[in-house]
Amino acid sequence: MDDGWVGSLDDKRAVARVARQPTPWDEVNTTRKQARAALERDFRARIASGEVVLTGLQIAPTAAYTRSKIPPIWAPRLRFLTTKNVVFMGNIKFVDVLASHFVRTTIPLPAEAEAEGAPANTPDPPKKPPGRPSYKRAIEEDLRTHWADVRRRAAKEANGKPNWSELARVMRRRLIKANNNHHDGIPEEPTLRKHLPRIYKQLLRENPALN
Fold first, then answer.
1. Is there a contact between 76 and 44 (Cβ–Cβ < 8 Å)?
2. How many other β-carbons are positioned within 10 Å of the β-carbon of residue 138?
3. Which DSSP string corresponds to 150-163?
4. C-alpha closest to that of 142 among 186, 98, 184
5. CA pair distance 68, 147, nearest whole angstrom
6. How many CB atoms lie within 10 A of CB 10?
7. What is the 3-class SS of 175-210, one letter each residue?
């Protein structure tokens, strides 16, 4: 079939080879995609480490009454809609999301303190070995995120409080699922059971509207 080409077959093949070569725009587009992926990986790492804290208002699958922190343990699985400040975690949707950057700073000694003989360049003390991780933040964030379910469980009990053992079991399953089904760093049920009543009571005391 005549495709309208005018010229030798070798010329036609040469033109086809040139057409298949990546253009400058292709290279720019690839570089942009790679840079965006690198930025997103860095952003997720900062969320997971606690350096960046995300807060938003949950509107699905249940609506919350107050803003809450988005658990850092969810960082690998979050889906961002940056043009609308929306973040998804599975079927959980947060709107009006804000990111706060926490930077640790050191406060220099006042000049008069140095004049009194305080060392100007005291070396930092050796770091203590890491102890057992604190689970308070993870428990608090899970309670806030699933507050409607927590209150539903409390309403079923005669004392008006959730069944702590049952709630600890459900919470641990949620935390493991949010951690890509890895158990590393997830508190055991007895630990959750121990801390849940105190943190639950603290949330109610700090925000009576949750009651």
1. yes
2. 22
3. HHHHHHHSTTSS--
4. 186
5. 11
6. 8
7. HHHHCCCCCCCCCCHHHHHHHHHHHHHHHHHHCHHH
pLDDT, tens digit, for every residue of 149-191? Answer: 888 888 888 888 889 999 999 999 988 888 777 777 788 899 8
| Cis peptide preceding 61, ω within 30 of 0 | yes
Cα separation, 157 vs 5, in Å, equals 83
Q: Is the pLDDT of residue 36 over 80?
A: yes
Phi, psi of 196 (to 5 degrees): -55, -50
Exposed (0-12), middle (13-18) or buried (19+): which is 122, by Cβ within 10 Å?
A: exposed
Question: CA-based angle 160:211:60, to the nearest 5?
Answer: 110
What proportion of the chain, given as a percentage, has pLDDT over 70? 72
Distance CA 211, CA 203 (A): 9
Burial class (CB in 10 A: 0-12, 13-18, 19+), 106: exposed
